[in-house]
Design a protein that fits this description.
The complex is a heterodimer of chains A (114) and B (115). Chain A contains no helices and twelve strands. Chain A is an all-beta fold. In chain A, strands 2, 5, 6, 10, 11 and 12 form a six-stranded mixed β-sheet that branches. A four-stranded antiparallel β-sheet of chain A has the order 3-9-8-7, with no helix packed on it. In chain A, a hairpin with a 5-residue loop joins strand 7 and strand 8. The termini of chain A are far apart. Chain B contains no helices and eleven strands. Chain B is globular, with a radius of gyration of 14 Å. Classes of the chains: A mainly beta (114), B mainly beta (115).
């Protein structure tokens, strides 16, 4: 069975500081990994993904994530946080052997304070 | 393109009533899924489909039925609503296996309350 863990319910950072939102996963086959962001009363929006290739992937709004196969992690990062980055962030995984099924983490609320 | 369209946006049901949540996408995506979002529990997969005529159960399928007669539509049916089904429901779609651009597109959600 595939699973995703986001160990932190809440991450607080000051504006201008770097941020990290953690994600670890478990799949049987090769992982397809995704980060999504959700603003209040909205659907989820895609940020970035790892399918294959470079372990460091860059996405929307200055976000990036590093795929680490040995640690089965896919942490989301941004060098300098903005107040407007405050939102709910979800990590998701698909297993290459059953790519129709996506599993999401419980979400991490990011709060960026001025 | 409209993307993924869910209707209705809000719904109140009485216990025991049935209803269908509609989901349509205009991107010719093979994969479609239904999730429910509850506080502190993230998104939980209810049912998913990898193509017209093919559906499968997710983590929390009990009390819900789906069908996929066309590529575009993936309705979710609540057979006999229960208060435990009070939640926000999201439909999502994406391209299928073998495509690099496999990220999901989400609808705006349906907020369902069962009293």
């Amino acid at each position: 069975a595939q699973s995703v863990a986001q160990p932190e319910d809440q991450v607080n950072v000051a504006e201008g500081n770097p941020l990290t939102v953690k994600c670890t996963y478990s799949v049987s086959g090769n992982p397809y990994l995704f980060w999504y962001v959700q603003y209040p009363n909205r659907g989820l929006q895609f940020l970035l993904k790892y399918i294959t290739g470079d372990n460091l992937v860059k996405g929307s709004y200055g976000f990036e994530a590093e795929f680490n196969k040995s640690q089965t992690s896919f942490h989301l990062k941004k060098p300098s946080a903005l107040v407007s980055d405050s939102a709910l962030y979800f990590c998701a995984v698909r297993d290459s052997t059953n790519a129709g099924k996506s599993t999401f983490g419980d979400g991490t609320t990011l709060t960026v304070k001025p | 393109n409209a993307g993924v369209t869910q209707t209705p946006k809000f719904q109140v049901l009485k216990t025991g009533q049935s209803m269908t949540l509609q989901c349509a996408q205009d991107m010719n995506h093979e994969y479609m899924s239904w999730y429910r979002q509850d506080p502190g529990m993230g998104l939980r997969l209810i049912h998913y489909s990898v193509g017209a005529g093919i559906t499968d159960q997710g983590e929390v399928p009990n009390g819900y039925n789906v069908s996929r007669s066309t590529t575009e539509d993936f309705p979710l049916r609540l057979l006999s609503a229960a208060p435990s089904q009070t939640s926000v429901y999201f439909c999502a779609s994406s391209y299928g296996q073998g495509r690099v651009n496999t990220e999901a597109f989400f609808g705006q959600g349906t907020r369902l309350t069962v009293v």
